[in-house]
Each structure stands twice: as C-alpha cells, then as structure tokens.
Amino acid sequence: MSLAAPTGPGPHVVRGACPHDCPDTCALLTTVENGRAVAVRGAPDHPATAGVLCTKVARYLDRTYSDQRVLHPLRRVGRKGEGRFERITWDEALATIAQRFGAIAASPDGPQAILPYSYAGTMGLLQYGSMDRRFFHRLGASLLDRTICASAGKAGWTATIGAAIGMDVEQFAQSKLIVVWGSNAIASNLHFWTRAQEAKRRGAKLVAIDPYRSATAEKCHVHIAPMPGTDGALALGLVHVLIAEGLVDRDYVDRYTVGYADLAQRAAEWPPERVAATCGIAAADVVALARDYGTIKPAAIRVNYGMQRVAGGGNAVRAVACLPALTGAWRDPAGGALLSSSGAYPVDRHALERPDLIRGRPRTINMSAIGDALTGAADPPVRAIYVYNSNPVAVAPDASRVRAGFAREDLFCVVHEIFQTDTADFADILLPATTQLEQFDVHASYGHLYALANNPAIAPLGEALPNTEVFRRLAARMGFAEDCFRDSDEDLARQAWRPDHPAACGLDLDLLRRAGWQRLAVPAAYAPFAQGGFPTPSGKCEFASATLAAQGHDPLPAYVPPRESPATNPELARRYPLAFISPPARNFLNSSFANLPAFVAEERTPRVELHPADAAARGIAEGMLVRIGNDRGSFTATAHVTDRARPGVAVAPSVWWPKLAPDGRNANAVTSQALTDLGAAATFYDCLVEVARA
C-alpha cells in the first residue's frame, strides 16, 4: 500500500484526522483538485466530529499554504535569536547534525549531553513518538520527561481510577447534571460542549467551576469561581457535605472502593465554612453543589487540565476523581467523570518507541524546567538540543531563563518546524516540517473512543519532511544498523496497536485508512466502572492509594495550597497581590495558529483582564497599556476591565508568540519552573503578579 498523496486532475476527497493537542481529535475530509487542497471540513459520519470543526482547524489551509512556511533546510548566519539563515541542502543539514551529535557522543560528557525536546505539536502516534524515540534511545541521549501539560492530572487520576479512562463523551447528552471543572470547553473541547448543550436543552443543569467567567461559564446555570489553586479544597468540601448529609451510595462504596473511612476522616477537616474561606467563595455554594451532585442523577463531571497547573494539581484531581464513586455515578453511562480517554486505547508504546534500544542509564530532564536545564542545572551540561513538535521559547515557563539557555553560543540547536517560531530563531540548523495534510499517521484520542487514520492529501510542499522520515535518515547517517530504523510509516502504523488488547478487536489498518475511523471495541452504552473493575492494583476505586504511600506520598487526597498565595507566602503577596492565570486564547492552540494573520487579527493584541475593583485600585482604565510583572520578569498587554475576572485574579489569554507581542515577551515571562505535587508538571497558574500602568 502506497502512502503517497493521491494524484490526478479530478477533485477527490481524502480522509484525515486533526493532529492538534485537543481532546476532540476530529475526523477530517480534505477536498483535493489538481494536487492542491481546496477545502477542509469535518467528517459528518464520524459520531464525535459530526461534521463540525473549530474555527482554527476549519481554516487549516491557511496553515498549510501560508507564505510563512519553512520549506527548505536552513543554516544560521546571524547571532542566535536574530532568525537569520541561509538555505542549504538536506544532505548538508543531515551531515552537520550527524557530525555534531557524533562528536558530542564521543566526548567525555557522552551522548546524554544531547537532549530531545518535543511535545504535542502533532498528536499522531507516528509523528508524536515512534522513530524519533528509537533514534534518541539508540543514541543514548538524555530522556525527556514530557510534563508541560497533563502529567499532574494524569498522576492524580491514575492513582484513584487506575488509568486514563472515563465516560464516553457521547453519553454526556443524557446527563442530568454536568459539572465543567477547569475547562473553557467552547474554546478547547467543542464537541463535548455540543453534548452538554444538548443535555441542557433536555433539562440538564450545568455548573462551571473556574476562576474566570469564560464563554463556557457564561452559558452554564451556575458559575463558581474559586481562587486559582484551591480546587482541591472545594472537592474535599463536596466530599464532606456528601458524607455529612447521607448522599453517599454505600452499596457502591462498599463493593467497589477502598479507603472510605480514611477519606471520610480527611473530609471531616473541610466543612463548607473552611472551604469558603480557602477558596474565596460562599459556603452556601459548596453546600448547594454537593446537594445537587448527590441527588441529581445521572451526574457527570468533565474535568480538564486547567485545575492541575498548580502546586497541588495532582491531589486536586485525585479529590475530584473520588466523587463519582462516592455517589455511585459510575453506575450509569451518563454518569461518572472524564479527564482523558487515552487509557482506553490499545497503543503499543513499547513497539513504537523501542525503549529496549536505550544504552546505559541516561538521565531524565524535565521539560517544564528546561530553562534551568540549559542554564547550569544539568551536569553534564546540555550541549545539543533537537526541538520538534514544540516551541519552548514561547510555551515553557520562566521565559527569560529559557531564552538565556537557547541563546548559548555553545549549544548546538536543531529545530524541525513548519514555521520560523521564536524557538526556530535560535536554531543552528532549521529543518522544514510537513503539516497534517502532507503526512501519514494514525491517531488515538483523549476525548472520545474512535481510532483514526490520517491519509496524506497532498505532496509535501518544498522540501518538507515528516518527523519519521527525518529520524530515519539521521539514523542511517549515524550508522544505526538495527532493522527497526528501516520501518516505513506503514510498518510503524501496523505496530501501533496491541493485538491482545480487548479494545483492539477488529481494529484494522487497511479498514481504518479507507473509513477514516473505527470505534474501539467497547459497548455503545459505555459505562466502564458500573460494576467496579477499576484498573488499580486493588481492582477498586482507591480513595486511599497504597501505591502513593509506597512512593512517600499521602495515600489520601490532600489539599496542597499554591506556593504563591497570601496564605503560603504573605511577603511575596504583599508585593505581588494578584493571582495570575493564562488560559488558552480562543483563536490559538498553545502557540499553534498564533502566527497566522486571521487568528492574530481575531485576538487583536495581548490583553490582561482585571476586575473593576482591581483596576480602579491601580488607576487602570479600559484599553490602557499595562505591565504585568514579578521577580521573574514582566510583559506588557492591553487592559480589559471586566467582571469576568474575579477580584484578586489577573487573566491573560495566551499564548502569544513573543516576537509578535508589543515588547517581545509573553505571559511566560512571569510563570515559574516550580513543579506539581504529583506528576512533576508545570505550575503555570501558581503565580503572583502586580499589574501597573506601563
């Protein structure tokens, strides 16, 4: 089977999948005429997508055919950060990389002085993590702990539930109560929101929990706005009321959970009044939500990753994950909770990534602390970095440290990119990457239960290559003789699924490519834990986790307060009294799409939203240019005075490319490299700032 893009003069439609870091993983239909893509739309036959795309991906042709594309290999000719390059051949680029990597690997520091840096610029199983991991494993490079987005939430959820498994998103349409916790679903989970709206039309009650009154929160019946980083206290308060008022399903708890008595004792410490004081909300709101959650059935929670980007993020998700088992909500397909569905997929990471190729015991570097790693914390120092599927100079925390690290003249930097990002400006070698319309892949999802295939719709533009092919060529240049480096993309795709996994029954690559998608082998009315069967060591929902206890953690969900708050650091809070969050801008997806003119025009300019009381206290009026800063740095933005931001919180929709911002900096100028309690994740929303007129 050829993986080449179809050819021919007549129009034809190619089935694909959206590759971006979003739970919806939409099925795409691309219309091609004379070798050029002329339209991209959502597949109407895919149950999750139902023919609808977000505003970003609906204009995917703007991305593929942008005049900003990097289309040829380039070599730096200016100073690092200037973004000045000259064109070279692929042969020259590969030879340079192989020579530099080989020399570093042979030096006293060894190959662990080389670091890959990647994340979810594409979520396809092949282009996200297959041939690249094989290459760096065989090389002996440092391992990368990919923590920048979701690892705290995953750790907390897994400790309680056992795997990243939850409700089927399609079942939310049947729910009678939906709690949207830490998510602006209209911007970042559109197809869940479609189901929530359907449920609302049928009489369901919608509750949003978010420090910011987002577009999603505005359309819910109830909005509860806790201070950032206090969601764990709110969840424990809900547990307290559920137990105190007898709203617990004791049959479900006795059959399918462990640690109830210990959890009850912990929750007794969190009466509504203490929760209210900690979270900055009304005690009556805690009681009312608990009563609704305990009496309206089926009740569903859509918890997202916003709430876990704080010091206690892992424990906060742990506490929320306990709620459906307490009330027996898992009994109904339209009850329970969803953080991620990725654990339902039969992905064979071992076959794709080949960790058996690792030589020696290379160190692991946390991507959320890349600024420190590149500026002296790593021993031996990182002497080479290869960046793909990510833009760390824009998205990593503590940006001044990140920029200083990438500016090192002694750091050999390779960037494989679609566009000349802020990170690409620091590259010694810049390689041209394909977009999704130009590459083959297979996809799992973390928001629904359908595997997808992405067929290339057009030939690669210029000399662009996908990740898999670049690492295949680099492996050959480095003399890696193992057969696995000769696997084609089709070979990789056939290795992607575990055939022994029950959800893989009937999952066939040829059928997947023809149809575009296949549902996993799970029931239509999917209720994964209706009769227990949790994939934990005990087989039950673990309110108390022996695994966490063995690792030295509290076995119970605990409230871990923010590191930066009046309660934990009053001196810092006197100087920087505003909590700061930087949720996704509606027209950007992390830093993807944030350079394209149509989306930049929609966002207009970096802004910070302030409550009228906070703005008045600082003499700030609507439209003023303001400086947002702390000891780590500062950036400027336009003030928007609105009660959508709760008092005491500054909200900066993000993330802008620094070089497109007024002062060359973005929100990550003020964020911290400190890590979460579980999962060692980034703490973007655990941050204090002051805002002043610029």
Structural class label: alpha/beta
Between the first and last Cα atoms, what is the distance in angstroms?
A: 60 Å
Number of strands: 27
Determine the mean pLDDT. 97
Lateral arrangement of strands in the main beta sheet: 5-4-17-16-15-6
Q: How would you sum up this structure, described in words?
A:
The chain has 694 residues and is of the alpha/beta class. It folds into three domains: 74-149 and 345-519, Rossmann fold (3-Layer(aba) Sandwich), CATH 3.40.50.740; 152-339 and 531-550, 3-Layer(aba) Sandwich (Dimethylsulfoxide Reductase, domain 2), CATH 3.40.228.10; 570-693, Barwin-like endoglucanases (Beta Barrel). The protein is 29% helix and 17% strand.
Task: List the SSEs and their pairings.
Layout: E1 12-17, E2 27-33, E3 36-42, H1 60-64, E4 74-76, E5 85-87, H2 90-106, E6 114-118, H3 125-128, H4 131-139, E7 143-145, H5 151-161, E8 177-181, H6 185-188, H7 190-201, E9 205-209, H8 215-218, E10 222-224, H9 231-244, H10 250-256, E11 257-258, H11 260-267, H12 272-279, H13 283-295, E12 299-303, H14 313-327, E13 336-338, H15 349-353, E14 364-366, H16 370-377, E15 384-388, H17 392-395, H18 399-406, E16 412-417, E17 429-432, E18 441-443, E19 450-454, H19 467-477, H20 489-494, H21 509-515, E20 517-519, E21 541-542, H22 546-550, H23 570-575, E22 578-581, H24 597-603, E23 607-610, H25 612-617, E24 625-630, E25 633-641, E26 649-651, E27 688-693
Parallel strand pairs: 6-15, 7-14, 8-9, 8-12, 9-10, 11-21, 12-13, 15-16, 16-17, 22-26, 23-25
Antiparallel strand pairs: 1-2, 2-3, 4-5, 4-17, 18-19, 19-20, 22-27, 24-25, 24-27
